[in-house]
Amino acid sequence: MPKKQWGGRFQKEHDRLALLYSQSISFDWRLYPYDIAGSIAHARMLAECGIIKKTEANKIAKALREIGKKIADGAFTFEVDLEDIHTNIEAALMKKVGADIGGKLHTGRSRNDQVALDMRMYIRDEALTIVQLLHEFQKALIRLAEEDSEVIMPGFTHMQHAQPVLFAHHMLAYYEMLCRDEDRFIECFHSANVMPLGSAALAGTSFPIDRKMLAKELGFDSISQNSMDAVSDRDYLIEFLSACSILMMHISRLSEELVVWSTPEFGFVELDDSFTTGSSIMPQKKNPDIAELARGKTARVYGNLMTLLGLMKGLPLAYNSDMQEDKPCVFDSIDIVKSTLRVFARMMGSVTVYSDRMEEMCRTGFLNATDLADYLVKKGMPFRQAHEVVGKLVTHCLDQVLALEDVPLEKLRQFSPLFDDDVCDALRLDNIVNSRRLTGGTARSSVLHQIRRAKKDLGI
Ligand code: ARG
């Protein structure tokens, strides 16, 4: 069994089950590039401050780089007995350069500030990767909106037919949500971008180290201002999981729409064969699994956020081992978010939009009722009264199984003398859509403006 770094005061071997229970190497190995970069910077800084020799720092840095390459090549064997990524790498370093030199690396440092550093560097990278993937997903939505920019569909409130909207307008609503998600992930980058090394176990270190040099070397904007806070702060991870949860919530709403829209009852869209699955018993089935799974995985990401909030709420300062449990929920959420964004960018690019069906459904549910009331208002009737008149007309149409546009003018006049020939135009769906020309409206001109703005922002 390899020797434990902390083994000095112990007279007995670590219990096997206790060791397996406490190890984190099975999941924290993915922090290795950051652990290595952090250790190289730490060694250089120790040399610069005269705490170790320059030759020693060079040997340490060279060995660490080799270890990093070996891990990247899949040729490194992680040892569970060595608990975590930090100790695994340090043990490998000792083997390479000898304990006399390798043993100096941990001067003025603790695993507590080391893990805080690694996680902050990891989150910075992942936040930026997620922003890139968000852009790809947004591009797919914009392309879909552009391809079908003329298609009118029923807009819903309470899942009831409400008013006609452009399908493109509906897709662009998701684009907006994703813009806010992007802002949140950029915020997460900044929250993580504070350098904790030098906090050591909890109290700071008495070695004359240069924290600013470390920050500069590792690309951090600032250094932490309180060592106890720095080793036990997981706020930035909670913020990150909140951003993941909100993003997944958006994707889950879209998923729900895709599931519903691809039923025969709706028939608004069809998902490509390559993003659906069949049934083992019902030969006719084509199931929207990806959308369903995204909806399901959203629950997992929410759960991860709750885990972390629950994990932190009772912890006294400073570091506690409970905090090791932050990693599985963060890693799991990152994997879900990245894979969901990747698959959705592709899936949305292959959606078939059934415009005829959408337009057919626009003819039911009195989507033009609001505009009929607005018509009367423009002729001088107070809105509340106009609402009442059109409400009565709707009841009449329901009795007669008619659409509003099918009611002859003479009949309309029985409900209000203000109705005139121009009412036909007021009832036409394309006019209704295109009259909403204000910023944020569903008119074609406004939607084209939204698309132009989005394309400019995305550089396409
Ligand atoms: N594997 C640990 C974690 O993930 C690293 C810090 C361990 N520190 C300690 N004092 N046991 O949090």
From TrEMBL:
Location (main, coarse): cytoplasm
Family note: Belongs to the lyase 1 family. Argininosuccinate lyase subfamily.
Stored Pfam families: ASL_C2, Lyase_1
CDD domains linked to this entry: Argininosuccinate_lyase (cd01359)
Name of the protein in question: Argininosuccinate lyase
The keyword Lyase appears for this protein: yes
UniProt GO MF annotations: argininosuccinate lyase activity
Gene Ontology CC: cytosol
Biological pathway: Amino-acid biosynthesis; L-arginine biosynthesis; L-arginine from L-ornithine and carbamoyl phosphate: step 3/3
EC number: 4.3.2.1
Domain named Argininosuccinate lyase C-terminal: residues: 366-434
Subcellular localization: Cytoplasm
Keyword Cytoplasm: yes
Organism: Candidatus Abyssobacteria bacterium SURF_17
Domain Fumarate lyase N-terminal: 8-303
Bilayer-crossing regions: none
Family annotation (PROSITE patterns): FUMARATE_LYASES (PS00163)
